[in-house]
Known about the structure:
- The chain is mostly beta strands.
- The chain has helices at residues 197-200, 274-277; strands at 10-15, 18-23, 28-34, 37-38, 56-57, 63-65, 68-71, 74-77, 87-89, 99-102, 106-113, 123-131, 135-144, 150-152, 155-156, 171-173, 176-182, 188-193, 202-203, 210-216, 224-229, 235-240, 246-252, 262-268, 282-284, 289-298.
- The strands form seven sheets. Strands 10-11-12-13-26-22-21-16-19 form a nine-stranded antiparallel beta sheet. Strands 18-17-20-23-24 form a five-stranded antiparallel beta sheet, with no helix packed on it. Strands 1-2-3-4 form a four-stranded antiparallel beta sheet, with no helix packed on it.
Amino acid sequence: MSTPTPTGIQVALRRGDVTAQIAQVGASLRELKVGGIDLVSTYPLDQPTPVCAGVVLAPWPNRVRDGVWIDEGTERQLAITEPKLGNASHGLLRFTAYDVEQTDDAAILRAHIVPQTGYPYLVETSVTYMLTDQGVEVTHALTNLSADPAPVALGIHPFPTIGGVDPHDLVLRVPAATALTADDRKIPTGSEPADPALRSGVRLGDVDLDTAFTDLDRDDDGRVRVSLTAPDGRRVTVWLGPGFDYAQVFTTTTKFPGLDLAVAIEPMTAPANAFNSGDGLRRLAPDETWILHWGITLD
Length: 299
């Protein structure tokens, strides 16, 4: 481990020619390399995490409109953490410094979601990063320590890439049948068929996306695979295990330091405003644990 930075202690992992760096704040995947090739976009060590890069989003990903939601008949008001759009954004652990344990090739980060404004539940969470020969596999566990069922959803915000390749030339593939439409506050308004071109692949430099996709195709192993492919055929894949029924794809030309194009491919168990719509929202019974898996590989 390193000395503290704006994103806390940096946890270095290695397995052969696969290396990773995990930031303590937000339990975020800050760096991942296979054979020296960057698989996630990186940012300067002396800066806070930009655009939630790699951060774990719990107990909800994305947004809650006005921060207001109805909890079994009781209206609750969350803190507004996205003042520009008037939303509660990206959960309650985004700026939390997790407790860390590590070995050479794995790390476990733990944090509690404690009862607070608009969320009166105690939820224990852990994130396990385990390096593989091709990248990283990530396991999340959420346990409800409250006396009542606790509403939860989970998301992660990695920015995959292939180091040394112009991101404009990467080909994005999203195996989805449905795209969610959204208003100017990024709250879902409905759905429409996803662009079929995304299945065969679109050049990243030719699209502008901030879209949640669902009705995702799963392979025989139960995983959804969203990928970026370089002109030379190398492919980085973000895979989603069971329970991750939504994938948000977000492109930015202004918000990631040092890059004129970056893309987030975000595994999510629920879309924006799930605390109100109920879509993808899960209520954990007291002492119930929910385990989820996702990962990134270089093929």
